[in-house]
Amino acid sequence: MATEFVGKVISDRMQKSVLVAVDRLVKNKKYDRIIKRTSKLMAHDETSQCKVGDTVRVHSCRPLSKRKSFTVTQVLHRARVFDADAAAKAAAADAAAHQAGGLVGAPSFAASAITGH
């Protein structure tokens, strides 16, 4: 069994633990097709820095609990999060600028509403 996997965080509701979905490709011998299989690994996240949607690297370690025997070693990519309050404020500012005869173009909420962690 490999000691290192890369996957996406699908749950961060636990304290210091995350659930990571790891995809792999398996060949079906009978039908000669490639099938995608997903494994869910429980991983230890000491600082609770991982959020749902983050891409992380996990390594195997000694068993930490009944289901947890992996640790998060690196966050490779942060998930983009939609901020509804920032989008509403930016849309209101764009509407006010449009009525006042301001710049017409791409709305400013497109960049400010979606932020990374």
Q: What attributes characterize this protein structure?
A:
117 residues; alpha+beta; OB fold (Dihydrolipoamide Acetyltransferase, E2P); five-stranded mixed beta barrel; two-stranded antiparallel ribbon; 2 helices; rRNA-binding; rRNA binding; Ribosomal_uS17_bact/chlr; structural constituent of ribosome
Your description of this structure?
By secondary structure, this protein is of the alpha+beta class. The protein folds into 2 domains: 4-78, Beta Barrel (OB fold (Dihydrolipoamide Acetyltransferase, E2P)); 81-116. The protein is built from 2 helices and 7 strands, in the order ββββββααβ. The protein has helices at residues 84-99, 109-112; strands at 4-11, 17-28, 33-44, 55-60, 68-77, 80-82, 114-116. The strands form 2 sheets. Strands 1-2-3-5-4 form a 5-stranded mixed barrel. A two-stranded antiparallel sheet has the order 6-7. A hairpin with a 7-residue loop joins strand 4 and strand 5. The two termini are 32 Å apart. The mean pLDDT is 87.
Number of helices: 2
Strand content: over 45%
Low-confidence stretches: none
Whole-number mean pLDDT:
87
> What overall form do the CA principal axes indicate?
elongated
Secondary-structure topology with pairs:
Elements: E1 4-11, E2 17-28, E3 33-44, E4 55-60, E5 68-77, E6 80-82, H1 84-99, H2 109-112, E7 114-116
Parallel strand pairs: 3-5
Antiparallel strand pairs: 1-2, 1-4, 2-3, 4-5, 6-7
